[in-house]
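Researcher: Hi, I'm a grad student and pretty new to this. My advisor asked me to get structures for two proteins we've been looking at. I'm not sure of the right format, so I'll just paste the first sequence and hope you can take it from there.
Model: That works fine. Here's the first sequence with its structure tokens right after it:
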Amino acid sequence: MEILTDYKDLVGKKIVFSHMAQFAEQITLATEDGCVLMATFDYDESEEESRVRVMYPHLVIQVLNKQDWIRNELGRLGIFDIEKYKEEQRIKQEKEKEEYRKKQEEKDLAEYERLKAKYEKVVNK
């Protein structure tokens, strides 16, 4: 499961779900391999044009939390399970925090060793 942030990532994928209601604020597309892309329209009243803007993952999660029908349809089709996605993201963040902590410890130890060597020379003189 993945939330896409670039429409180009849809190239070569099979779209198996779409939601584009007439007055909807966003378009939702989901692929066979569990990817979801949501986009909104930004209207420029001065130029009477609209631009499509792909939504960031945290906004997609907010929409899925609010819109039961889309969330349930994606789950029913086995495309995207929001709870499973949240758990995957939590695990990913924990791993990143642990890696950061280990790197920080290594950095701190190297700094400690450097300072220890420097000041032991000063004391021994």
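Researcher: Oh nice, that was easy. Here's the second one.
Model: And its structure:
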Amino acid sequence: MKETKVPFQADISKAPVKLPKNNQEEHTGTHSISFLIGGAAGTGIMTLENVLSDAFRRSGFFVFSTKEYMSRVRGGSNTTLLRISDGPVHAPCWHADLFIALDADALDHAQERLGDETVIMADESVKHEEMDIVEMPMLESVKKVGSKRYANSYICGVLFGLFGLDAKMLSQSILSIFEEEDPQENETAMQEGVAYGKALKGVSLPDLPAAQPALTEALHLLNGSAASGFGFLAGGCNMITAYPMSPSTGVLNFMASMSRDLTIVVEQSEDEIASLNMVLGGWYGGARAMTSTSGGGFALMSEAVSLSGMSETPAVIYLAQRPGPATGLPTRTEQGDLDLAIHSGHGYFGRIVLAPGDLQECIDYGYLAFELADRYQMPVIYLSDQYLADSMGMLQTVDFSRYEQRRYIHTTEASYDRYKIVEGGITPRGVPGLGEGMVVSTSDEHDERGQITESHHVREKMVEKRTQKIARSLSEAYAPRVSGKGSIAVIGWGSTKGVIEEVLKVLDDSRLLHVHFAWVHPLNPEHLELLKKTDANIMIENNATGQFAGRLKSHDVRIDHTVLQANGFGFFADLLEERLKIVLKELK
């Protein structure tokens, strides 16, 4: 019989892995401007976002973009916000410096985001009684080129011409994105737009940030879905089974695209129930498997989450949050599923819940999800949301060789007992066919071998065994990230990281410190001692009830103020700044 060796084989006795340190000193930006693009689904807003983001990056600007879109394939009114800056930017703003309306409906949809200083641009056929519009002969110009589908290239050209930017950078972006679809026609439309933008007079434009090409040329543009996917690959994921559900589908699509070059089993399951059960089957057979879903799909997985807990089978679940209940707002964002992730499933068993806050954390905690699931033999739930999944930012090149690889699979002997009682509760995990042992697993309570039992004595031992695993994972939990040395803590978790960082930088108040949680369950009480010594604690959450604030309160952490939002948007830096100012006045 051919001997099979487990690559990166490790034992639970080894100290936990450490995430690679990010040693890059982040340049601090001082000035940014924002572009808001509005129009119906199907008019190419995403194309505009992709072309402009890449072109601005090539031009030496730091770029961040995010979007809000309706639950429909065509029609409605959607917006994409794009910010460019002379330094890293990780959050959106509500008010726009320049607004591009692709149709008349977009003007009304975005009206409350437009101020007196906002430059509003639209095709000459678009009219509005209350707004001064800078007109473009967009449709007429692209008809001459050949089709209205070149309108996006024309608009990009107008912007670059209007701001006097190097059109060569825009041309490179257009050619790279449209290399298989009418590249020459899109180039021609872009040049028409550049010429018109240069000729426009009397437009009061915001000042451009200073370009930083030496800093941006080595950075990569990607969204949260792709960053999470890269993290899962760094963690050794080689199997994903999922049923598509917005906004989690981005990860499924990313992993499917990577399967062309990497060995990854990708299966679109018939439903969410099947997908997680297939994941458990994958881990049982030796794979590193995951599923991706959103709130309604995760609700269907509850029984399989319990099966993971009882059978001590690892599982990784990517849960991209959106507003509920029921179908709710299927294309909007909210941090509303934390309680669901922590309490899903029946019975008492361990699980770990992670919630990354930016692109680098998406990679780090995607990797960590697989390491932790394998190490503790329990489900790991990775919480993202529509805002984080769909937002696009910039990231330095990642050295994936710095992520230590481990596989906690052991060759079994004939006497192997899958659930042998051991100190710490984590029995060495075997898989079928690797060694001489029989790997027995069941959803019922079981003895050490894995045979079904109803003995209350055995039950007590197995409950204690699973409890010891929870205690070990708790002792090895990652501490929150603390920035600043003040006495008033501004607390956030998951995707609020970037917006809180920006607001605190703008407020420049020495009393404030930022406490960011990416490991949100279970919480190590030692990590919360700081929050019991502060003068005040302010909780910022993208949900209606303060779910994480409730978790902290259960650990005797005082929460003095909550800043909550549950309208389908993520937090905007300029609006959050005003809300925090009000809270801080109350604390004086």
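Researcher: Is there anything I should tell my advisor about the second?
Model: You could mention this: Residues 409-476 form one domain.
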